[in-house]
Amino acid sequence: MGSPSISRRDFFRTATLKKETISDDPLFDKYSRKTLGPRVYSTELVTSFMRGAESSNNNAQSLLRVNPITSGLAPYVPTGTDPWDATKALHLLRRTNFGFKHANVATLVAAGSPSAAVDIVMNINNTAPPPPVNWYQTVNATSADAGAIPYGADWTNSAFTYVDAATSDLQQTTNSYRNTAVRSWMFGQALNQDISIREKMTWFWYHFMPIDFEFIFQSSNSYINTNSARIFYTYMKMFRDGALGNFKTLVRNMATHPAMMFYLNNQANTATAPDENFARELMELFTLGKEPLSQYTQADVVAAAQVLTGWRVTGLNTTNVTTAFDHTKHKTGIKQFSSFFGNTIIQNPIPTNLPNGAVELDALINMIFTKTQVISEYICRRLYRYFVYYDIDANIETNVITPLAQTFVANNWNILPVLNQLFKSEHFFDMANRGVFIKSPFDLIIGSLRNFNLNYNVSVPSNYQAQYQVWGYFNDNLCSPMEQRMGTIPNVSGWNAFYQTPAYHEYWINTNTIQKRFTYLDRIMGSGTGNGGGYSLTYNTLNTVIKVDPIAYVQQFTTIAIADPNALVAECLKYLLPVEISLAQRNAIKQQTLLYQQTSDSYWTTAWANYLSAPTNAGYLSTVKARLQSLLYTIVHLAEYQLM
Amino acid sequence: MKRRSFLKTSSLFAAPLFIKGIPVSGSPQTGNSMLDMLAQATYGCGKILVIVQMNGGNDALNMVFPLDKWTQLTNARANILMNQTDVLTLNNNTTTGLHPAMLEMKNMYNEGKLMIVQGVSYPNPNFSHFRATDIWFSASGSSTTLDTGWLGRELDTQYPGFPSAFPNADMPDPLAIQIGSTLPFSLQGPGINMGYNVTNPTALLNVINGITDPAPNNDYGRELSFLRLMKDQSNAYKTVIQNAYNVAQPQAAIYPTSNSLADQLKIVAKLINGGLKTPIYIVNHPNSFDTHEAQVDVNDKKLGAQANMFTILSKAIGAFQTDLGLMGKADKVTGMTYSEFGRRIKSNASIGTDHGVAAPVMFFGAALNTNPATVAGTAHPVPGMIGGSPILPTNATVNDMVPMQFDFRQLYASVMQNWLCLSAAQTDSVLGSAFTRLPIFANATVLPVDGIELLGQYFAGEARLTYNVQENNKYDSFAVEFSTNGINFNEVKRNNNISLNNVESYFYNETNSAKKMFYRIAARETQGAIKYSNIVMLRSNSKEQLISVFPNPVVDNKINIQFFEKPNAPVDVTIYSMQGAKLYYNRFTQVNNIISFKVPAFTANAHYVLEVVYGSSTAREQILFR
């Protein structure tokens, strides 16, 4: 985008205001929640489950209760009838991690209380992970790094400057590989996450203040096509390092980060033609929001744009890339803000010094952050919609959002205390919030890869090409067709599932994407071309098969549970579905899968005992494998598996 | 915005959208000319197999009685054996009788619509339900395991490329449909599960119905309903199934009530009536045949648990067969009932029987080789029975088994080759080796089906149709029906019966320029029933009908090709197997209107594709060798 200042912004406006989308689609018309009513409990099925009891018969219509949700931020204190158990630990893990490992559940249950469990999840290891490396050396004869970075080595401090056209081509090729490296590496970080919230929080920040890799790479800025990957890496590092840090600091750092300078074009903001793009999004999307209390004016946007004139990315072709202030491009004079900001005037120099961009920018940020209620409530709503549910009714506004926002302000814009309070609350663990969240593509893909212990890391770690391409396959070939991809954002507003009224996360689902979701699940369960199904990925001579081993999966449960088909079905369902299903449905699943239409439980018990007695007996093996495969296939094919 | 553009294009779609990332909406071609050719050649096989599973291991000695072994039965199982006089006897079959609960099936046998294949099992039998079921499903031997089901492999052979190339214009319908329950292993193909399961086509919302909890009245329930609906809507086959299901049936049989098997078969019948070209359906008997105890009523041994199951079975199949007759499709559909194994000869003390080995498999339908005149003098001379009454020891011990007479894979091979249009080579390839075929089907080799043979050619802007009618005198008129998609046919011309001749030929030419034209003949019997011919597909474009191959089926390996325009020599003639292998080639340099030549022996009763190329013209015909 060479001259994008006006048209691009308008484009985004029209692109995001797509009311007609909904009326085009009769199905969506009928079933999307056009108006968000008050949220309600609940049925006997759900309440009995909350008591920890076996769900009793769920056709007792007379017992149905429909009540408003009144829980708030008071800490959830387990009781004898509502204990701290695996079901609640799973809820915490699903919402704060991408899926979970079996051992994670045990860790959180062993913590003994929701408070201790949340502390574990919020305890971020502040050591930054090793940066992305040269994975591309081995791709072909001409894919060696133009900066002579060796195979497997960190390239994030290697810059390119212009020498001649031929060299530039090689540099651009390398940079292109490096861009891919960042995307794949990020996917690998999410797959190999620890039990903490860091990865999920990183992607909150990314989608909240996003950049689009391809958009920036294709922009006409000098040196960008040979150096973009390094600033993508540092931009994401800023979020990963500050995942639970100070929001105001993050906004200030984001404002002058080179990647954002290019993405929202503050790079071209100049005294003679102020570019309002970044100024507007800074208020509308990144801090104040556009909810009723946010009463900034168009004049405020113009004034802020003037404050922001003169910043320029420098040294992109050196190891010392930074955003510096060029006073000759700065709009001098006073910038007058509206009554919403108390008629603030930002003026610099005062009166005769050269303009100082940092002073003005700090003044602008400070002024915006005087609107404490507007910002804190807006951010808390965004966090709520990312971690809990989209529908915020009057009760939740009063009992959750308002006090949470006060915590945010009282803690001087630190995020950690806010999330601590939210996740430890009665409201977060309220049955009304369990299983209501449609899994994002990341939740579904990464979560399933992790839950089923699939081979997302290649068997030879030094085969960097194979490793990065496997991770890239997940991001580009699985997530992307489901409309979420690391490093790609539909527009500056982020993924509409997390903000767009009225359907919010239902936007992930259409007849196309849902088919892809089930195709993915079919494949990992063993369907697919080639021997035995699954995804068989061969890169750089190394083959990686992505396919569930159903026997290994159930062997994570106790030996007693595996041998009893009732217990085995219940265990699988507990880990794979967010809310318990009825005994009748459990029995039907058991009979259709583990018992293959027989009625006696002993047939499964015997089959399993036979297998254990001779695990290499092909007949025994195939008997139990086919039935377990059928069990897992049936469970993940339930619509319930798409929820968390 | 991606979503929006997607929905715009998809809101018009007739069948599917994206499968495994490949958009196939509205595209009639697979993009692979060999696939196109094969699909085109197999198109119109038109045969349907309905499998009725009797899970649990049926005690068939208490179902198909060896009347000639009554002493042995009495010695082995007096505590469950009914009076011999209660057994239903069968026409022309002195050794065998049926359980008194199976009145409808007895009648079908006497009408030539039921075939009993005795003593079906496999070498080295396995007594585990699971293992035995897997063996039946995968058609493996007892010592090997296969990851795929035989029907899946069959479908994969017949419809290569599933699912990325399916549904398509030539095969818009599911390749297999299982009613109720989860998808069985037998449908697991090498690529992907080939079935589509449907419980109630009018309410597809809960695809695995019967085991799906209702969504509760809260946010979770609303999201769940939304997801279930979208999952359902995205199913590529939803529209064709619902359309087929909703086609009106002028006359329908009355099915028994409170009979889950009848409910399932009624759905199958409605889908067949609606013109769904799905070749394979699977239904499940609702009860478990695993009768270790209380198999019969001790006070009246012709009653009891197993008798109730046979009542369900017989009444359901009887109604289904009647229904197929009323819709004029009886000879397009064959049913097959089986259980994973039989039970012991000797009963146990709990008024039951334990796991055994061989048992009869029953086929039903109007296309069976049951004509007494035809089977007389053959290896299986009893009409309606293949194999003999089982040989039982005089005093059976607990270890004695009903002996095996036929490997179940012989039955599979016969079904594939003689019913589902696979070639001998394809059949052997699916099963891994050659199994001797059994004479289960009558006229297994005859083209056309149904006694109304429609032939067509496209020439000079006209579809030129010829149809030859057997038993011509039983019809009063013939409707020529046309379709652009092979699904929705409209009458374009009605010809009245022109003679009382037993065999008559009719002609009809129609000016037409549709890219693809599908024709069929709907013959109306004097009683009002409708009988359909095969469907002929013609093309008006570059692949227009240039040739006619006669006779077809080919007799004595002599092929005649008639040209409808004078070809520019040379003419290249190639014969391909259905798998695309080149089997014969010759170049003819002197050509007038007809070329006649002899080819080496081909496998009898197998389909091949004959291709003629001259100048820039190519024409293909499916041929069959006698």
Helix content of chain A: 40-55%
Structural class computed from helices and strand pairing of chain B: alpha+beta
Strands in their spatial order, largest beta sheet of chain A: 1-2
User: How would a crystallographer describe the biggest sheet of chain A?
Assistant: 2 strands, antiparallel
Q: Assign an overall shape of chain A.
A: globular
Biggest interface and its residues per chain?
A-B, 85 and 64 residues
Termini of chain B, distance in Å? 59 Å
| Poorly predicted sequence stretches spanning 5 or more consecutive residues of chain A | 1-35, 43-65
Q: Multimeric state of these chains?
A: heterodimer
Q: Runs of chain B with pLDDT <50, length 5+? A: 1-44, 181-210, 444-450
What is the rounded distance between the termini of chain A? 39 Å
- Molecular shape of chain B: globular
- Output the structural class of chain A: mainly alpha
What percent of residues of chain B are in strands? 25-35%
Integer-rounded radius of gyration of chain B = 26 Å
The number of helices of chain B is: 13
What is the averaged pLDDT score of chain B? 76
Radius of gyration of chain A: 27 Å
In short:
Chain A is mainly alpha-helical and 644 residues long. Chain A is built from 29 helices and 6 strands. A two-stranded antiparallel ribbon of chain A has the order 1-2.
Task: Describe it.
The complex is a heterodimer of chains A (644) and B (626). Chain A is mainly alpha-helical. Chain A is 49% helix and 4% strand. Chain A has helices at residues 7-16, 20-23, 26-31, 44-50, 86-96, 102-111, 114-122, 165-191, 198-208, 213-217, 224-241, 247-255, 258-263, 277-284, 298-307, 357-368, 372-387, 394-410, 415-423, 426-429, 441-451, 464-479, 511-524, 550-554, 559-563, 565-576, 583-592, 602-613, 618-636; strands at residues 311-314, 322-325, 334-336, 345-347, 535-539, 542-546. In chain A, α17 (372-387) packs across α18 and α26 crosses α29. Chain A is globular. By secondary structure, chain B is an alpha+beta fold. Chain B is 22% helix and 27% strand. Chain B contains 13 helices and 29 strands. In chain B, the strands form 7 sheets. In chain B, strands 3, 7, 8, 9, 10, 11, 12, 13 and 14 form a 9-stranded mixed β-sheet that branches. In chain B, strands 17, 18, 20, 21 and 22 form a 5-stranded antiparallel β-sheet that branches. In chain B, α12 packs antiparallel against α13 (424-431). The longest helix of chain B is centred in the middle third of the chain and has 22 residues, at 305-326. Chain B starts with a helix and ends with a strand. The chains are: A mainly alpha (644), B alpha+beta (626). Chains A and B meet through α3, α23, α27, α28 and α29 of A and α1, β1, α5 and α7 of B.
